[in-house]
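Appendix B, example 12.
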Amino acid sequence: MSCKHPHANPARAVLVLGLIATLAPLTAHAQENAPQTAASAADLQTVVVTGTRSLNRRSLDSASPVDVIGSKDLLGTGSGELATVLARLLPSMNFARPSGADASDAVRPAQLRGLSPDQTLVLVNGKRRHSSAVVNVNGTLGRGSAPVDLNAIPLAAIDHIEVLRDGAAAQYGSDAIAGVINIILKKGADGGEAEVVYGQYDKGDGAQSTVRGSTGFKLGEDGWVRVAIEAANRDFTNRSFADPRPAAGTRQGTITQRYGDPDSRPRTLFVNSQYRINDAIDWYAFANYGERKTSSAANFRTAYTDATRTTLRTSLYPEGFSPLENSKSVDTSVVTGLRGELAGWRWDASLNYGRNRFSLDVDNSVNYSLGAASPRSFYAGELSSTQELANLDVAREIPVSFMSGPLTVAVGLEARHEAYEIGAGEANSYVGSGAQGYSGFRPENAGKNSRNNQSLYLNLEGDITKQLSGALAVRHEHYSDFGNANSAKASARYAFTPSFALRGTASNGFRAPSLAQTFYTITTTNTLLVNGTSTPVETGTFPVGSAAARALGAQPLKAERARNLSVGAQWQPTRNWTTSVDLYRIDIDDRVVFSSNLQLANAPALASALAVQGVYVGAARYFTNAVDTRTKGVDIVSTYRLNLEQGARADLTLAYNHNDNEVLHTAATPAVLAAQKLLLVDRQTVSRLTVGSPKDKLSLTGDYTQGAWNGHAVVTRYGKFTVPQNDAALDQTYQPQWVLDLAASVRIARQWRLSAGIDNVTNRYPGQVTTLANLNVNGTQPYSVWAPNGFNGRFLYLKAGYTW
């Protein structure tokens, strides 16, 4: 259904800011008669550690935009998934909800500023987080990426999050092109909290129950340990329509497949600790162990081979079946180190280990090639991604005569080892036609690959005058697989008055192709459009270094190269009101993308070349540095605190992002493909980068607090987006969608808090997929998996929390 609200644009957002400015004097009387609270001042003067090496750098004084999101905000929605929460709180973040996309259903990627999910660096307590082992290889958001799994980090463990919306490769290394998400864990021995949450969708499915808690303990007289646990049961949702095909089963027109969120069972433990060894040295460590079992449904398999209902596909399922992909994702990480001060230098030496292991079983399935003797359950194999790091960082403030403040000098060294491994499934999962739903990894797919990386960085920053501050960072990295990378960043901020400042940054950066992109390989059955008809095709994904990929024109991957420019203005007309506007441009050369699905039915020469190597597939694909892109946009954030009578307070926030992606150059198709009239990168691949994500996102948030009561409201406008096809006539553009979330809470006896809320109060759904059989699977999948707010409808929830 189309939204009738007017289309938002930057001018409209500026107009809204102007209205706020007009209304501000009308509230002056209320402000003058209400005392300034410490909390209000603290909110505008939060000290940040992301994007800076200086001590006591406030978010208000940062040369790059940094969002600080507290635990209260993270727990203020009905969702328990970190990526979902961040997407609701940050206009520049997008988090779609894939369905029927194999492993992507279980490990869903999020994107910042419309870029690839793996172009955002994720830190925990300032230390690099390991990436997921899952590669998003289907037609979803982030196709071809293997980013960090944000949902593996429980909300119970988080004190706050700092989101740096700027390129920072010179400061942090690979992946920090779109920005940096730094997750700061809760600390200290004092206090604790526990919460129980229950919610359910308006349709009566998708019930969610969560138990979470955090508490601290003393570690001797000079240390502490903080423990956080979280466990949740999230039932699947189903928004599919009935399958009308006669071949669907003996109960014609009544078979309904699953299409929606998967069934999920996460269990997570996080530990954070510190101990003072002496007056100059502290030991610290934090670690986590988490398991998430997920069950997602593949497309429904009809019982008969055709509409005449004469030949059963298998006697095991006489009414058809939906295969279930039952996965288990295990995350483990340990970071430990020493930090202290020596001769005026602050130093921090740490070791960092992280691993994600993703294993997959296919149940309620069949291998047609095995006939009636086929098992119904299969072990399809596993993926594993590991990183090991050693860091040494030192910094100090050095007085400089011509500067108004000290110069912060920071230098650091890092050594990193990464490994990626594929484990084969059982033979029944891949022989012949393979297990329906997900054909297993074959022995020829299995293997372990690794690489090493060493880096050195220098960072200088300080206040040159009372009005002007600046920073310079340089970094050199060496990778054992593709060589050297150098990056630099310069930033400055000038305060024209105490209430108004301009800021800007210029940097170049890079992202190393991940080991997953370099070595991921599998042969499985994919549903592709063949002559306008949805058809199952045996498809091979080949590493760029393999003989099969080279026969198709593949070249070794190289690093993506980025150039970031940003300029912004900060305005704080009153102590309780602050506004920032930041313009940015990000150019990326040699972006790593998945090639087209190279269909070989009409390319006999290529099919023969692969057959010589013992490879028999109907389609093939590989990763390639194929496109240069430009991303331009603007972020607007305005916050206002209104202190009212009788201790009441209202917090208002307007946040807006406009983001535009453009493909500047596409690599030439290799001659071996062009000779067979195949394209290395097709129209759909290019268009996904440019129009697949909303160009606009606007949110208006209001919080009202009086005594024990609190009310929360947020309205979000998701801009239009397009799901492209290779045939432009099959493109579908989805109109903007407005979503309203409401919540209220009351504190009882100081330690108890009860909350109730409704997400998507007006029960808005995105527009339905065009009723073409090749796009919505005969009408059974009515909504697009690219919808930025999902397609589950209204969600109601209750919470009970206890603090001590």
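The chain has twelve helices and 35 strands. Confidence is low (pLDDT under 50) at residues 1-44.
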